[in-house]
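So, does this match?
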Amino acid sequence: MERTIETMKVEFLDLMRKLHRAGPPWMPDCEGLTPNQARALHLLYVMESADGAGARPGSLAHHLAVSPSAFSQVARVLEERGLVTRGRGSGDFRAVSLRLTPEGVALARELDSAFTARMRELVDYVGPELFSQMMDGVAKVVEFRLAETASAAEAGPSAGPGAEGGAGPWGGEEAGCTC
């Protein structure tokens, strides 16, 4: 049976809801950390592994798609638990950088290992070819949304959906509801 736009719309929304409720499959329960704390610790580990430097809190918040104030609470807990330290940049004493402590590195390695194992399970379950196609499809959805967001930002705050110039990649009134 061929999917129509109506059936795809319903199925897409249902799948997104189910995926959201199921939560991220990649962060295991870890030493009493919340999922956001575990994700932050893992991201800092990945960033430090890539360039050997710490990371700015704003950059981590951006990558985790949380507000700077929400990330500040996450960083505070990780620091209190002895998993990260805050340091000041040599050129600008106001610039804060987070770095993993040896305990943080050890725990982040465990998280990375668990994440890798979980990804193997997921790819094996879905199949490498289908998983790769899914990644390509999700990348296109993200590309679409980023273009839509950039178009709306260029149009300014007064341009809502369907407003002249603020309609995202479609242009014109078809882009959104004017109700």
Remarks:
- The helical segments are 5-22, 35-51, 57-64, 68-80, 102-126, 128-155.
